[in-house]
Amino acid sequence: MAPSLRTVVRRTGLRPLVGTLDSVVRWVAVSELEDPTPYLEGDELLLTTGMRLEGDFSPYVARLVARGVAGLALGVGLSHQEVPPALLEAATAAGLPLLEVPRETPFIAIGKAVSDLLAAEQYDEITRAFAAQGRLTRAALRTEGPYAVIDRLAKEVGGWAALLDEHGEVRHATRAAKAEAAARELARLRGEHGVWRGGGANGRPPASLALSGPDEHVVLQPLGGGPRPRGFFVVGASRAFSPVTQTVINAAGSLLTLAVEQGGAQREAERRVRAAVLGLLLDGGKGQGRAERAGMEPAFVERARAVLAPLGGRLPEEPVVVLAVAGDALDAVEPHAFTACLPEAAPLTARLPEAAPLAGRGPYAAPPGSPVVVLVAAAEAEKVAALAEGTVGMSGPSAYAELPGALDQARRAFESGRDGLVRFADLAGQGLLTLLDPAAAQAFASALLAPLSRYGSRADLIESLRAYIGSNGHWDAAAQRLGIHRHTLRYRMKRVTELLGRDLDDPGVRAELWIALAAISSACPPDSSRSSPS
Question: Would you list the DSSP string of 64-96?
Fold first, then answer.
């Protein structure tokens, strides 16, 4: 803070004549102009000998007061042997502090004294800022970590502070903090689709947001160094923040960002471990017979529990249910169940890669947006599934030795394209084709039925084959279904056999053809007259 006029008087020996000495002095200016105000900014101590001042001093004084000068100091002994009474009257009437500069006091000495006082104030501000940073750093080293930094920050600014997560939820707040109001304002500024009002083109919020009102000054800053904030902190006080206070706030932001990023690194390390544990569980059942699986808990499950124990994690007891959820639901589900990320590039119907090493990144450190596997006790499956937004694929209950199959069920349910909770048991009851990849099924059907499609009257052959298989090989029923004579149907089926080079009496051939016909039926537009084989 700049020195007061009283401090300057005490340091320089100026003689105060009228007015108070409480105004601050931010600089010293010397001018003999009748109107020096165009060259002033305000809060200056104006020094003059008054060589051009005489008669009515009121306009001159009024201009200085309007400009906001800290005071006027008249040097006597040159133009004026003493301060003119008219100047005293004008200064008194306008409330302008008026001082006398003795003849023996050079103006430059006053300028140097004020400069020294300003330098001392700046040094004190830097010292206070360093001391405050030290106290904040010591707070960051406490067990409470970020919460202790928030508490210390509130004391340093003489106000309140709060810590918010990346969604704007209040995680910690000091007494009398207006954290909920700040969270609502944050939601407003975030806008729809996460587009920040006043943010940059990269979608990040501004580095600092001032939410000040007439009776309170509030600053909100994002935390984290990535493209998306990892959290926010907000600090408020009844008075405006000085440069020192702003430096302290920025220091607190750096400490909180470091704590958030370190916490994120620890979470990523724990996720890599859980991904490796999932690989261990999936690979552990190889070579175990049914008798061994039906007995005590398999050894690979015991090893998996031992790996998780130092992290404070645990596996659910059998029977377990596997959930497959979108990657952005990880934060919501993670505190309530065992979770592990799958590589984004790996198709959900493919087998997982080998278990990742416990150190290093490995194949299980999935990027954001990758599918997430959740293992949960069967009794808790519905409750945990409700925590995730979007599609949730759910397997049936299983033992750990049957985990690969349960995972495959959950992944197929997740990829069904439906919203909300999708149980594999419900999906399986709607037909075999719902369990197949549509593109793969269509490619299979096109290849198998290609000889019939290339035949001139292919519609007759394909529809005849559909009726024949749908009637389970009964000639009369199929012919009646088509509205043709059974001998005509026999001729067509003979032609189908020749074109396909397959025996229609073989149950396996019939099954493949049934799948192919159903696949092309499902690919037909809704107004198609074709009927699926039954």
Answer: HHHHT-SEEEEEPSSS-SS--HHHHHHHHHHT-
SS3 at position 158: coil
Q: How does pLDDT run across 482-501, given as a tens digit for each residue?
A: 889 988 899 989 988 988 88
Interval 90-101: pLDDT, tens = 999 999 999 999
- What is residue 350's predicted lDDT score, i.e. its pLDDT? 39
The region, left, alpha or beta by phi > 0 then psi within -120 to 50, assigned to residue 239 is beta
Confidence of residue 330 (pLDDT cuts 50, 70, 90): confident
- DSSP-derived letter for residue 240 is P
Cα angle for residues 277, 279, 283 (degrees, 5° grid): 120
Buried b (16+ CB within 10 A) or exposed e, 287-307: eeeeeeeeeeebebbeebeeb
Apex 478 CA angle, 474 and 481, nearest 5: 150
CA atoms lying within 13 Å on the CB side of residue 202: 8
Q: Which two tokens stand for residue 446?
A: 């096109």
**Would you say 194 and 188 are in contact if contact means Cβ atoms under 8 Å apart?**
no
- Please give, one letter per residue, the 3-state secondary structure of 438-480: HHHHHHHHHHHCHHHHHCCCHHHHHHHHHHHHHCCCCHHHHHH
- Structure token pair of residue 385: 């599934």
Q: Is the pTM of this model over 0.90?
A: no
What is the strand order of the sheet 71-75 is part of?
15-18, 98-101, 71-75, 44-48, 27-30
278 vs 284: CA distance, rounded Å? 10
Beta-carbon contacts of 509 under 8 Å, excluding residues fewer than 6 positions away, are 502, 503
**Where residue 527 falls among pLDDT bands split at 50, 70, 90?**
very low
Residues 6+ apart with CB under 8 A from 340: 271, 274, 275, 277, 278, 364, 372, 373, 375
Q: For residue 161, give both structure tokens.
A: 């502070």
For residue 443 the two structure tokens come to 């490619």
